[in-house]
């Protein structure tokens, strides 16, 4: 039986218990249970501060949140079934736990993503800071806040469980058997969660040194040898790099590993995109008709494409680094690159669609030139607002004014890039084909390799589509030939 649970029960509930209550745990608890704001000048437990690295704390918090969900679900069900009511202070703790569970639970079901533990710890702290700032201890850094908040939440949770436990006793005495299973299961989960959290801090450091040792022996290691935060895809069984040296990460680009295809597909892709942006695009026939704004929009697309490819290459080169913080930082860089690219792709399409929409009024060419004039400020505001707010407005507008067929014709060029992105994303998410034949696609042909080619294909198709859209828009605008009133 757990110390924490025991000390609480003895202290608050006077339920007879033979559990071993540690004095340290009791002090910590009783302080927390007074629910006073603890101040930063209170010394943080020194032994803990030196043993816990921020990463170990995030992992610990992550495990705790996982346990919290299970335990709180039970508690909630118990509360509902037995119509139990808590006093005002405990009720507030109950609400805080519920908010934490709800805020953090969308991340429970997802696969393990880089930085997810830290991200969840952040949400956890923010949730409490938003509604319960008066009870959570003041701390400087996120890991300290997360650690202190976790302890507070655990004290609430076990206090509530203790109440539920004594209530169960009352109910059992009055012959209500049904509750027994539910609360016993709750207690089991609590034990399990406590033990896991206790072990988590050593686990990470241990598994990192194990992986480093393996990598020193055989250069490439297996999925099983990887520490948990580095594991992404269990169907890629071999070929992982793991090193403490950044230089070694970079030189590993030139040696075969399961990242070789990922690294080089986007490194070469970057060279292709740069060649287009600085050579093929300026020498294209449509380029002569481009206004400054057109160039800016096209420039955004090229910049986004390059950023995406650079970030991706960096991430795949560096993800074998045995430093969790650094590895997660590169992963974040990778995600922002992709979302930026998608946003820029939408922007170019909308821009050219607006040409056609606005071109109907016969104002497109003069409008283009006077777009930056001082008296056009409302037109500019209207344009940017509609661009930002109405992703589908051009589709709708074209549909109404020109008919479905015409709209289809207008958007036909971008269907290729959209399809490629879309199919790529589905393959990326589904881990096909390596899911069906684990180990067969460790070095090439895995879903992530296909996704990389899809991103590159999407960029190239989108470039082609963008040029076609511009050509069409210029042609229609010049055919119209009217001028602004
Ligand atoms: Zn990638």
From TrEMBL:
The chain crosses the membrane at residues 263-281, 293-315, 335-358, 378-396, 408-429, 449-466. Zn(2+) binds at residues 316, 448, 452. GO terms for molecular function: metal ion binding; signaling receptor activity. The keyword Zinc applies. GO terms for cellular component: membrane. GO terms for biological process: intracellular zinc ion homeostasis. PANTHER family: ADIPOR-LIKE RECEPTOR IZH3-RELATED, ADIPOR/PROGESTIN RECEPTOR-RELATED. This is Inc metabolism membrane protein. It comes from Lithohypha guttulata. The lineage of its organism: Eukaryota, Fungi, Dikarya, Ascomycota, Pezizomycotina.
């Amino acid at each position: 039986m757990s110390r924490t649970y025991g000390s609480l029960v003895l202290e608050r509930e006077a339920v007879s218990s033979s559990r071993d209550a540690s004095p340290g745990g009791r002090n910590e608890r009783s302080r927390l249970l007074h629910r006073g704001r603890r101040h930063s000048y209170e010394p943080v437990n020194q032994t803990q501060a030196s043993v816990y690295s921020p990463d170990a704390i995030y992992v610990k918090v992550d495990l705790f949140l996982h346990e919290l969900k299970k335990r709180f679900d039970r508690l909630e069900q118990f509360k509902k079934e037995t119509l139990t009511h808590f006093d005002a202070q405990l009720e507030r703790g109950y609400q805080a736990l519920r908010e934490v569970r709800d805020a953090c639970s969308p991340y429970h079901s997802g696969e393990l993503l880089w930085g997810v533990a830290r991200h969840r710890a952040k949400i956890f702290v923010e949730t409490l800071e938003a509604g319960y700032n008066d009870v959570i201890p003041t701390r400087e850094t996120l890991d300290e806040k997360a650690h202190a908040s976790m302890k507070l939440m655990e004290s609430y949770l076990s206090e509530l469980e203790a109440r539920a436990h004594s209530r169960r006793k009352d109910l059992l005495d009055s012959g209500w058997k049904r509750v027994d299973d539910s609360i016993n299961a709750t207690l089991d989960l609590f034990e399990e969660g406590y033990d896991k959290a206790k072990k988590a801090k050593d686990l990470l450091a241990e598994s990192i040194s194990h992986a480093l040792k393996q990598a020193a022996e055989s250069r490439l290691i297996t999925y099983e040898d990887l520490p948990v935060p580095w594991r992404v895809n269990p169907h890629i069984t071999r070929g992982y790099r793991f090193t403490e040296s950044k230089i070694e990460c970079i030189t590993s680009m030139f040696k075969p590993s399961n990242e070789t295809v990922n690294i080089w597909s986007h490194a070469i892709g970057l060279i292709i995109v740069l060649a287009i942006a600085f050579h093929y695009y300026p020498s294209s026939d449509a380029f002569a008709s481009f206004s400054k704004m057109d160039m800016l929009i096209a420039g955004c697309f090229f910049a986004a494409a390059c950023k995406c490819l650079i970030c991706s290459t960096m991430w795949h080169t560096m993800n074998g680094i045995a430093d969790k913080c650094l590895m997660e930082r590169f992963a974040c860089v990778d995600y922002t690159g992709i979302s930026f690219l998608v946003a820029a792709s939408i922007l170019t399409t909308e821009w050219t669609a607006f040409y056609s929409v606005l071109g109907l009024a016969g104002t497109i060419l003069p409008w283009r030139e006077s777009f930056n004039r001082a008296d056009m400020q409302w037109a500019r505001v209207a344009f940017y607002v509609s661009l930002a707010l109405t992703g589908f407005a051009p589709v709708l507008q074209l549909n109404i004014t020109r008919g479905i067929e015409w709209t289809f014709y207008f958007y036909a060029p971008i269907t290729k890039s959209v399809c490629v992105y879309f199919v790529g994303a589905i393959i990326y998410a589904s881990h096909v084909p390596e899911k069906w034949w684990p180990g067969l696609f460790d070095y090439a042909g895995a879903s992530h390799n296909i996704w990389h080619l899809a991103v590159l294909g999407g960029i190239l198709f989108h470039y082609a589509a963008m040029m076609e859209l511009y050509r069409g828009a210029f042609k229609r605008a010049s055919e119209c030939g009217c001028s602004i009133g």
